[in-house]
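Q: Could you write out the predicted structure for this multi-component system? I'm mainly interested in how the pieces pack against one another.
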Amino acid sequence: MVTVDLNKLPNAEKIEKESRFLRAARREPVDAVPVWLMRQAGRYMAEYRELRKTYDILDIIKTPELAREVTMQPINAFDLDAAIIFADILPPLEGMGLQLEFVKGEGPVIHNPVRTASDVEKLVVPPAEEALWFTLDAIKLTREALDEREVPLIGFSGAPFTLASYAVEGGSSKNKVNLKSMMYSDKDAWHKLMSKLAQIAGDYLLAQAKAGAQCLQLFDSWVGELNPVDYRQYVQPYSKQALDIAKDAGVPLIHFGTNTNGMLTDIRDAGGDVIGVDWRIEIDKATEILGDNVAVQGNLDPVALHAPWNELEVRAKDVLDRMNGRDGFIFNLGHGILPTTPVENVKKLVDFVHEYSSK
Amino acid sequence: MVTVDLNKLPNAEKIEKESRFLRAARREPVDAVPVWLMRQAGRYMAEYRELRKTYDILDIIKTPELAREVTMQPINAFDLDAAIIFADILPPLEGMGLQLEFVKGEGPVIHNPVRTASDVEKLVVPPAEEALWFTLDAIKLTREALDEREVPLIGFSGAPFTLASYAVEGGSSKNKVNLKSMMYSDKDAWHKLMSKLAQIAGDYLLAQAKAGAQCLQLFDSWVGELNPVDYRQYVQPYSKQALDIAKDAGVPLIHFGTNTNGMLTDIRDAGGDVIGVDWRIEIDKATEILGDNVAVQGNLDPVALHAPWNELEVRAKDVLDRMNGRDGFIFNLGHGILPTTPVENVKKLVDFVHEYSSK
């Protein structure tokens, strides 16, 4: 158990008040557009690949000192406006009784997927402090490390639907037939499962804020596989439940999904101070649909980071021009950064966002 | 070379005038909403699986009598309002010089993918009559078989971007890094490639109409991976070129994509009398965005066919209610039917669409 007195961190109040990232999330004016990148700590960085020679993903996530080290790698390398704790959306499922493994070349596998009402019944809902103490400790340690850099820290959780997708499918899945079949044919099991996952996600987010996270992001990466009518009936209440629990923390909440451009208002209505937008829509158009009461985050195509700088610049500029000086905008990718991304483009992009938007 | 005198088919004129499907595509009033299903001939049908014990996919596609047999399987089993010629979007790439193989469990593989300007240079653009004679012959034979059933036949082609995706990536690809990298970094090669593919797709569509197809669909299945700005600059002109060539046939054109809900007007502006809509948006909302000058096709979630009938019915009814009696609507799925689909649900769905909408 790590003990860090967050109240004694010298820059805590200053960060809270002055961080571009937190200000933008609250729709306050900023001197330059803040930028961070989903999965900014990861395989595209040599420092991370080096560490992975010794440790596997779960080792790093479950060892607070290692999680802090990896979280800091992109902060040390680039002028990012926020750090995000190095973790994964799946460990909360382990605490519920599911056997998780990251299989090389295949991705995450759940060895005992949830398929029946009785499987749902068996899932336990432990407090985050018990099941996910390692990430909470990692947050405390990282807050300490970030304080002198005056960079705020983001905590996160998978959203109930995205967690359910892994829990029921047993891994990544293109069409999500098992998942949707449970939703269609066993409503009782579905609602119990989603209710448990909402509790897990909300509690985990809240615990991360208590541990020191200054902003929280709910990742609903796969929600865009639903039609909006099913979303509103079977999913939105649970995303709302998770976000409502997290709201008690009093920190800004980011609500992120992909392939959601036909249901942006439904995503917004589930909650969140900031809505994540993917690259499949012009960000000004998405902002118009979302309205004035939320901030937006996005929306560069992650693949654009593979372009020669002049082409990447054109695309970054396009995003910035579309949001031209609007308060409540956080520059990010539309989804996680890819392992094949050239590091030098990340550096140039981060600097460009600041320079261009502070003119 | 099959010789069928299409002008002598007794019901040709009647179909042209009275087919619900063709009428809806032209935004004329219909007695009931027409329905067909993308990939309606395929693995979910026992008849198809039986044939596949003896023949592989390319055998069937390249043997006009077998392609006709498979095309007719769903027409024999269900009360569908249109047939679609059994083919695949990839054989046109073979004619251009690419080595195509369907690898079991992996899907299509191109053994010599297009990666450089010199690879693009080498691609040939043969006339469809020479490179794709088998599908044109299959169309003639199938038109004969369909005439007495009074069912019209759809021909199709992959759109330039979707063809380019396979040609450059060498198979299915999640992030399309190679494809987009060519677009970003070698514009000259990109435009030459897309120009060749537009010519191939347009010419192929036109040839299918000449062979007897009474409607043509351009499949841009992967176009939704682009941001709209890149789409307009690098892709839309070529989709438009292909559709413009096909327009000479004088038959209705369907323009289909998925994950396009942030760029529906851009898809529409490339051309097509009917725009395909996936399930990630309410179809009335998509219709409103698309405006009054096009028909729409869609948009049931293909996974919904795995639901118990009462739940499937709710979702089919929702789509029909949203389009409540509007002319210019073709009921379909939002993407291809899945191999795991229960056949009895397909039968019930097709009948339900007719019964419910003719009330």
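A: Regarding packing and overall arrangement: The radius of gyration of chain B is 19 Å.
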